[in-house]
Amino acid sequence: LIIRLLILLTLCGALGFTVWTRLSASGAGFGSSAALSVLAVAQPELVFGTKTIPAVAFALCASMALAGILRFARQQDARLVVLLGTSLAGAGIVSPLGGALTLAAVPFAFPMAGSARAPSRTFGLLVLLLFLPVLAGLVLTWLWFARHFAIPDWIALIGGGTQRRVGSQIYLLLLFLPLAPALAYSAALQVRSAAVVFLAATSLCLTALVLRLWGSGDYSLPLLACAAPFSLLLMADLPDTSSLPALACGTCGAVLSWAAAFGTKAV
Amino acid sequence: VGGEADTQGASALGAEACLSRQAARCEDLAARADSSLLERRLLPAYLRHGCMPLSRNAAVLSVGVTNDVVRERLRAEFGSAVDLVNMPKHELTRTLEHRFQDVLRDEVTLELERNEPQFSARSVVTRTQGRALAVAGIVLLLSLAIVPSLAGVLLAGIVTAGYLANAVFRGWLFWVGSEGAEPHPDALLIDDPEDWPEYTILVPMYRESNVVPLIVAALRALDYPQARLDVKLVIEADDLDTLEAAYRATEHSSFEVLHVPVGEPRTKPRACNYALRFARGEFLVIYDAEDQPETDQLKKAVTAFRNAPADVACLQARLNFFNAKENWITRMFALDYGLWFDYLLPGLDRLGIPMPLGGTSNHFRVDALRAIHGWDPFNVTEDADLGIRLARLGFRVRTLDSTTYEEATNAFGNWLRQRTRWMKGYAQTWLVHMRSPPDLLRNAGVGGFFGFQLFVGGSVLSALLNPLLWLIFIASYFVPLPLFGLAWITGPLSAFGLVLGNALFAYLAMLGPYRRGWLELSPYGLTVPVYWLLISWAAYRALWQLVRNPWHWEKTAHGLTRMPTAIHAGEHS
């Protein structure tokens, strides 16, 4: 129990720190940043979840991936590519479904480099960004098929769910599904980074609701758990972030997140 | 004059005619020069001051001078006691070359061995190293015979650990090296061209007549006062075609052509050692015959040297290829170089780990280079050895943020020969510097010691181990040998090493071209496992050559690309 608590505290601390850093960097005051970070971490999964650690771990990975995408859209360096790929892979390992959904945000990193506008370069960058998450997916697949390492068990262990109704293969397929839209979206070079977060948060919430309605409820809470951090990262990315609207938005995000959690539980 | 004996038997009449013309130009001076007046120990002084005694007639000494400053000084000091004869720089060099050719023939080969025998690769392994290798081999064979399963598992574990350690170390170097480029100090503002330091450029060439015009054009395009350049095309004395091409290309310039006396081993470092004797510059750089350096590279190097501590003896410029997109091999080569020069070497620089130099665009302080006795002519990657030796002798090597574009070998045979030489040279370098591990530890420090093991030794070892890992992995599933009695351990172990190691290598290779924005090359990084198998082929070939013919320099042919060669390398970026 103590070890679990330590891990949980560490993950929560890391998640809060990620959000706080991002908010501080965007000019929010210390108090506002701290309050918003606490709101981001204080998620329903911490109360309702039986798989709290994977939920927070996924929230951390997804938040870092999203922060990486937003930063990458402005400033490109090799380290960011590695950090982004690692975060995406981490999100995919912790929660294949959530990781797959997070991948959908990758094309929004592309408005970036003028140098990457040629199709062959865009493709090269896409391959670079997706290498680690796809590799993680392949390793999970190999573990499943060659080593009979049950993905559901794996997920149950750290991935955030125990239900087998949807079937592990579907989750593996889901991991690769975003590749197609990612390729398609790569043409949309001028999309504002705010839309990335909006899309990611919305798709996560919707997927969580659908899964919950379908009966795979355990998967929905981890997804919900990262909705609020996403919205905070979105705010941090908007110009002229001032404390009051940010605090209001953050509170709204948290309230929505909790409301959705109560709602899905009721369902 | 010099080298006529070496030119006998020339097949090309054109080359003979060209060389005869050159000989005639020096003949008159040589006939007047009294060899007994010239002293070997004063050779650097003759070159530095641009004057040399020619003959003595009673009380009057005839002196050849190459510039007005020296002329005035000699006139003021000695008055009518000297008879001053005008002499172009290249004729002075040629006359001195002729005079000291026999002395230098041995000196350039044996200087390092005579002064620092512990650093010479003339002996491949010392007696102690031979014994250690024999004992290790016997222990391994006995273990495999007596406890095959356990030995197999241990072997797989060690191999996997070594392979992964190398991959992880490179990943770490990449991380450190990818830190934002250090702000470059503003270029030195020097108005008077005469105030720029004299810069020696050495271009060793062998059987490369086809690319001589390219390098001459690239050197002429350099943004550096031409009067302060001391350019030397360094050519084997019996390579008549290249000599002819060199004389033709440099006819109306101050570039000099040096005739390296024929001797063994016939290697680039031996030619460089010879040319070092004639270097006039405060700084010196080596370019290959097909190189296209960025035009401001020398000014950047001077600025960097001026801003660096005195113990920085060498700057390694970045290398990449102007024909990177020609075919699969050139693309893979470009990934390799991108990773190596844009990330790994800067990583070594930042961590203070001894850096094996790349074969070209190494900028040196000439004094330091002479102090460590130049290059090892018996090492076929003399550059890598020199970088380590500089570090061990208290100097530092840093990277220079300027690129030289080269021609990547575009044919497999050529690539294999070049890679074999590199692997052999790295093995030589590792063996030389591991003759006394405690000394290396003392000289390089703990980080430097282990960095050297992983970066130099690990490069060869990884290439040798890679196919072994594949074999163990496959065999552990299909071959019912006692060796694989513990297949449930060896299989996953080698699979883990293979997947993680190859994935890391592939990922790093894909990141290699990132700094240059050549992202279209990144997907080719996925084929790195195949490329690595080819490198392993070269590594085993190198191992065989190390035993059979350690100093043999497998020549890499240049000028084979069908892609346009840009003179101004900036066009590539």
Structure description:
The complex is a heterodimer of chains A (267) and B (573). With 267 residues, chain A is mainly alpha-helical. Chain A has 14 helices and no strands. The longest helix of chain A is centred in the middle third of the chain and has 27 residues, at 119-145. Chain A starts with a helix and ends with a helix. Residues 152-194 of chain A have low confidence and may be disordered. Chain B has 18 helices and eleven strands.
Summarize the entry for a quick read:
The complex is a heterodimer of chains A (267) and B (573). Chain A is an all-alpha fold and 267 residues long. Chain A has helices at 2-25, 30-41, 44-48, 52-72, 78-94, 96-103, 119-145, 151-159, 168-176, 179-185, 193-214, 217-225, 227-237, 243-266.
Poorly predicted spans of chain A: 152-194
Q: Identify low-pLDDT runs of chain B.
A: 1-13, 567-573
Largest sheet of chain B: 8 strands, mixed
Overall 3D form of chain B: elongated
Count of alpha and pi helical runs of chain B: 18
Cα(first) to Cα(last) distance of chain B is 45 Å
What are its keywords?
heterodimer, A: 267 residues, mainly alpha, 14 helices, B: 573 residues, alpha/beta, 8-stranded mixed sheet, 3-stranded mixed sheet, 18 helices, 11 strands, 54% helix, 12% strand, disordered N terminus, disordered C terminus
Strand and helix layout:
The complex is a heterodimer of chains A (267) and B (573).
Chain A: H1 2-25, H2 30-41, H3 44-48, H4 52-72, H5 78-94, H6 96-103, H7 119-145, H8 151-159, H9 168-176, H10 179-185, H11 193-214, H12 217-225, H13 227-237, H14 243-266
Helix pairs in contact in A: 1-2, 1-4, 1-13, 2-14, 4-5, 4-12, 4-13, 5-6, 5-7, 6-9, 11-12, 11-13, 12-14, 13-14
Chain B: H1 4-7, H2 13-32, H3 43-49, E1 51-57, E2 60-65, H4 68-78, E3 82-86, H5 89-115, H6 127-146, H7 148-177, E4 199-205, H8 212-220, E5 229-236, H9 240-249, E6 256-260, H10 268-276, E7 283-286, E8 292-293, H11 297-307, E9 312-321, H12 328-351, E10 362-365, H13 366-371, H14 382-392, E11 396-406, H15 412-433, H16 437-478, H17 487-511, H18 528-548
Parallel strand pairs in B: 2-3, 4-5, 4-7, 5-6, 9-11
Antiparallel strand pairs in B: 1-2, 7-10, 8-11, 9-10
